[in-house]
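User: Hi! I have a protein structure encoded as tokens and I'd like to know what sequence might fold into it. I'm fairly new to this, so please keep things simple.
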């Protein structure tokens, strides 16, 4: 199996990890005294949990790269299997046709032999007792000579056809062996891909749980000054998103156009850009580090996040927001059929969806129940297809 280079990590993931690290480092620098280092009972401090989270996320990046490589290897093996099947079928059909031609040629030779046998009496008695006399004998002799010649040619053709049939039959057997080998390779590659994806999914569940725990602990240790700083940051993000949403209420740029400024949340909006190909300058950052949405969705989410903070005393936990096209392709390859939107069709690619943790991701939890009641007031919904515990973490902005 040819080695497959690892897929490039999602740009937003590296940005998110860096932003989260800086944000948490700033918060923890002022609150380290409120939470002592790891005690004898093994409890981790927020700083240690932050370090652990960064390490686990780095491991997730490696797992995603491994999954991408395994999926691409399986795709290559599946292509080779399809090609081997086609070649095997073609070789078998050619061998069957050659065998048929050989059988027909041998049948023709047998018929010529029978014809020669039936007309073989050329004795002098026949020549003088026949009604046509010697002329009939001469005619029959000429006919037998013709039949004999055709029989010889047909026998030669039959021999050649038999040789070709044997050769093609051998090729068909070789092709069948190659097909079997390709099928085994594809099966192994599929197993490897499924294993890599399962390992990644298990790690993602652990990361979500750890991120939720970290959010809860940080909410407990933050002092008044840090809360004010976070609120100021939230208000600033809300102002930028609201301004950008107002500025982008027009038709937006033409598809593929680049905004004038590279600074996030200052372009005329995300409208007109293909799904999953919205530039960062047309997206607005959320208070959650590294997460971005289109302007109107971001403004509504930040308001909803403020209401969530008032109710639960902490910001909402976000695992995913805007999703680039390449990231959606990766997910579509990894997930089982129906478990991920096709590339170019996801609401994440429109900058209008988030995946949440921190309890919202658990069907029946207090956080999830609160979101079901409150989020629609801000234009956010857990869509019908995601209800009933199917994807409680997935929320979409509908305005």
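Assistant: Happy to help. Inverse folding works backwards from shape to sequence: for each of the 399 positions I chose a residue that suits the local structure. Here it is:
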């Amino acid at each position: 199996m040819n080695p497959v280079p690892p897929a490039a990590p999602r740009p937003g993931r590296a940005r998110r990890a860096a932003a989260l690290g800086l944000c948490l480092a700033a918060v923890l620098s002022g609150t380290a005294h409120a939470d002592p280092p790891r005690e004898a009972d093994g409890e981790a401090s927020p700083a240690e949990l932050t370090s652990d989270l960064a390490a686990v996320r780095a491991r997730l990046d490696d797992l995603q790269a491994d999954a991408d490589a395994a999926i691409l290897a399986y795709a290559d093996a599946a292509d080779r299997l399809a090609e081997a099947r086609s070649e095997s079928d073609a070789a078998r059909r050619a061998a069957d046709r050659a065998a048929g031609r050989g059988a027909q040629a041998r049948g023709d030779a047998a018929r010529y032999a029978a014809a020669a046998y039936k007309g073989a009496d050329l004795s002098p008695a026949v020549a003088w007792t026949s009604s046509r006399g010697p002329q009939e004998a001469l005619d029959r002799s000429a006919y037998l000579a013709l039949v004999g010649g055709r029989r010889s040619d047909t026998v030669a053709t039959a021999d050649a056809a038999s040789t070709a049939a044997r050769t093609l039959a051998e090729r068909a057997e070789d092709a069948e062996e190659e097909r079997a080998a390709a099928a085994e390779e594809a099966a192994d590659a599929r197993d490897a891909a499924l294993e890599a994806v399962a390992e990644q999914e298990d790690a993602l569940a652990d990361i979500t749980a750890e991120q939720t725990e970290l959010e809860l602990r940080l909410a407990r240790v933050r002092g008044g000054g840090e809360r004010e700083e976070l609120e100021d940051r939230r208000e600033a993000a809300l102002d930028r998103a609201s301004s950008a949403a107002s500025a982008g209420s027009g038709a937006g740029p033409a598809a593929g156009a680049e905004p004038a400024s590279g600074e996030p949340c200052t372009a005329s909006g995300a409208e007109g850009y293909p799904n999953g190909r919205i530039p960062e300058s047309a997206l607005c950052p959320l208070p959650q580090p590294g997460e971005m949405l289109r302007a109107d969705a971001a403004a509504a989410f930040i308001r909803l996040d403020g209401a969530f903070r008032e109710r639960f005393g902490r910001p909402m936990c976000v695992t995913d927001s805007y999703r680039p096209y390449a990231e959606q392709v990766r997910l579509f390859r990894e997930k089982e059929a129906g478990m991920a939107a096709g590339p170019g069709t996801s609401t994440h690619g429109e900058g209008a969806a988030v995946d949440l943790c921190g309890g919202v991701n658990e069907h029946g939890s207090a956080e999830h129940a609160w979101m079901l009641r409150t989020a629609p007031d801000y234009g956010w919904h857990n869509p019908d297809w995601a209800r009933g515990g199917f994807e409680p973490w997935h929320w979409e902005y509908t305005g």
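A useful reference point when you look it over: The longest helix spans residues 134-221. Feel free to ask if any position seems puzzling.
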